[in-house]
Specification:
Radius of gyration: 36 Å
Distance between the termini: 79 Å
Structural class: alpha/beta
Shape: elongated
Length: about 650
């Protein structure tokens, strides 16, 4: 009974006609008057604007033809959807349809009134058709014109942001149009910049093109610009960097449109604008890899990614999933990260054979069960503790998770016939001054030792690791052939936007109004984007023969202080004035600069010029394995002198004074 009453109430509330249908009916009434008035008005003009001078036979012919012509016009207008368009967004498409309808009805009028009734004056035919077109198009586009006038002069009591658009091409014009269409006039485009001198001093929809990039700062001040929208999707990274370097000095908020491939697929709108990222200021082309090599290497393989929920691990999973593996296994100790990457991959790759497992690389029993059950052929070992200051205060955890975890995972891979093991290392492993870097250098040495034992056919000499409470020892290998696993490491620096990196931290501080904290004004780091780093890791894996340390070319190092200042400027703020920068001093274990190679190492190149192979430093494998066992025991005993013990093994490790 209640539901029936609700339905009755809803029926009462619902209007008989929607608003657009009412507008369409009114427009049809207007058209009936307009199409007929056009020709009688033309006849009146033909006879010197004197109605009594019009011959009666012309008037009689017009009156008789009115019903026929009215019905025909309405049918044509309906078929060409002149009553279905949203005229506030009218564009070239609507103009063409009005032109076509006018041409069809004009031809019909000439032929039918002449055949059915009588021949009319040529002036009547030509001028009548022209007046009809003006009246039909005028009422429709006048609505849009009035809205444009309103948007140029908002009366909502709130000052619209004054916008400069860079780029007077198709993208800039589409963006300008979308800004004009916006319901709430929050942006007002006041000037346009374009490097083409042929466009200077001309206008786009009433907005002046005031000059090239050299005029950006002058024009921003002259027109009191609040925001700059960069609409040059075809610009190369180097060209974009040049533009942004100028824009960031203007004190305006800066936004950029997507790249060319997105521009081709859809129109540019306000929603497509994005904040300018620091990587846009790196000014280099995206790193390219040989996708065919990676595809051949990965397709049809069972692949394990440890630490698969982290910044690097999750991107590894994304790129591997895109190359049709036989099965992708994700192992992570942190369930939230694992769950997030699981949902993402299941949504994007519904046919992917995906297995997500929660577990630690320090758990021997878990690792053995995993490897014996799923038999992964390639392992990307990204699981690690990476935060330098935290590891300085918990050095034993760095050894247990990074070093012991790598040993156990590598041992499980070896004993279960894995074909390739790729360790994700870091430039902090080079001449380390912190325990995190030293623990990763130990990981590299473990990989080298395993690779050496495989080449010598002495893998049986590698001791198992079964330290309480992380699991029992592995059972004896069931392999019928000697293990042939290829062990390699890939070393690179910082990645933009990774968890815990400086960029997200700086953005949070800027959003809070500052201050932005930088440890030292001269500290520098190598940077690349996460997808770039991971694609190079995947290609480096295709070059592996066993024992190599691949070094990725990170380009030119960047000052962290410069990154912080650029982020502040890109937010439309002034470093030191709007947002303060504070220098907090180097943290324990932190270097002013990172290195990619130790002095003893040398580089050889690969087919990809951005991937190099560091010449391994010779180590006494048997002695090193014994030292690793001692370090493992010391870490689980929570020895306070663990850093001193590590320094005895990693001779390039020089702990910073605490």
């Amino acid at each position: 009974m209640i539901n029936n009453n609700k339905e009755k109430i809803e029926k009462r509330r619902k209007p008989l006609l929607e608003h657009w249908q009412v507008i369409a009916i009114l427009l049809a009434v207007y058209d009936i008057i307009a199409v007929n008035f056009s020709y009688i008005f033309a006849l009146w003009l033909r006879f010197d604007c004197r109605f009594l001078s019009i011959p009666e036979y012309y008037l009689h012919a017009w009156v008789q033809f009115v019903p026929i012509y009215t019905v025909f016009c309405l049918i044509v207008f309906l078929l060409l959807r002149l009553y279905n368009s949203i005229w506030r967004f009218a564009s070239f498409s609507e103009l063409l349809r009005v032109l076509l309808s006018s041409a069809i009805t004009a031809v019909f009028h000439v032929v039918m009134i002449t055949v059915l009734f009588r021949r009319m004056p040529i002036f009547y035919y030509v001028v009548g058709a022209f007046i009809q077109f003006i009246l039909v198009i005028g009422i429709r586009f006048s609505y849009r014109f009035l809205l444009m006038l309103r948007d140029r002069n908002p009366h909502n009591g709130k000052r619209a942001d004054r916008v400069m658009i860079i780029g007077a091409g198709r993208a800039g014009q589409q963006l300008l149009r979308d800004l004009r269409r916006a319901d709430n006039a929050t942006h007002k485009v006041v000037c346009i910049i374009d490097d083409n001198p042929n466009k200077w001093s001309r206008y786009v929809d009433g907005v002046p093109i005031v000059g090239g990039r050299d005029d950006i700062l002058y024009s921003a001040a002259r027109y009191n610009v609040d925001k700059i929208f960069v609409a040059v999707p075809s610009a190369t990274p180097e060209q974009l960097k040049g533009i942004l370097e100028i824009c960031k000095e203007s004190g305006c908020e800066i936004k950029n449109i997507p790249g060319m491939y997105q521009f081709v697929e859809r129109d540019i709108t306000i929603s497509a604008l994005k904040d300018v990222a620091v990587e846009d200021l790196l000014g280099r082309d995206p790193i390219q890899v040989n996708m065919d090599e990676i595809f051949t290497h990965i397709t049809g393989k069972v692949i394990l990614v440890t630490g698969g929920g982290g910044s690097i691990g999750s991107e590894l999973c994304r790129q591997i999933a895109a190359h049709s593996p036989k099965q992708l296994i994700v192992l992570d100790i942190y369930e939230n990260n694992a769950h997030a990457i699981q949902l993402e991959l299941e949504d994007k790759y519904p046919n992917l054979n995906l297995k997500v497992l929660i577990g630690s690389v320090r758990d021997s029993r878990k690792l053995n069960d995993l490897f014996s059950k799923y038999k992964p052929e390639i392992v990307y070992h990204a699981a690690a503790h990476k935060h330098v200051p935290l590891m300085e205060s918990s050095p034993c955890e760095a050894i247990k998770n990074n070093t012991v975890g790598t040993y156990k995972t590598a041992y499980a891979a070896l004993m279960n016939g894995c074909k390739k093991f790729v360790l994700i290392s870091t430039d902090k492993a080079v001449n380390p001054v912190n325990i995190m870097g030293a623990s990763k250098r130990l990981c590299e040495m473990i990989i080298q030792s395993f690779a050496q034992k495989v080449k010598e056919g002495k893998t049986g000499e590698l001791p198992d690791v079964h330290l309480h409470p992380d699991g029992d020892e592995f059972p004896a290998s069931t392999l019928t052939e000697p293990p042939t696993t290829e062990f390699v490491a890939v070393r690179f620096g910082n990645v933009l936007g990774s968890n815990g990196s400086v960029i997200p931290r700086f953005k949070e501080q800027i959003a809070r109004g500052g201050p932005v904290t930088v440890t030292h004004p001269e500290i520098i780091r190598y940077f690349m984007t996460i997808p770039e780093a991971v694609s190079l890791v995947l290609q480096a894996g295709t070059y592996a023969k066993g024992g190599e340390i691949f070094v990725l070319d990170m380009g030119t190092p960047v000052k962290i202080d410069t990154l912080a200042r650029n982020l502040i400027k890109l937010s439309g703020l002034r470093p030191g004035a709007d947002i303060k920068i504070e220098y907090t001093g180097l943290r324990p274990g932190e270097k002013l600069y990172e290195e990619k190679l130790m002095s003893e190492e040398g580089l050889t190149t690969t087919a990809n010029k951005l991937i190099h192979i560091g010449k391994p430093i010779p180590i006494e494998t048997d002695r090193f394995i014994e030292q690793i066992q001692q370090l493992m025991l010391a870490a689980y005993e929570e020895r306070e002198d663990i850093c001193d013990l590590v320094a005895e093994v990693v001779t390039t490790y020089h702990p910073a004074e605490k």
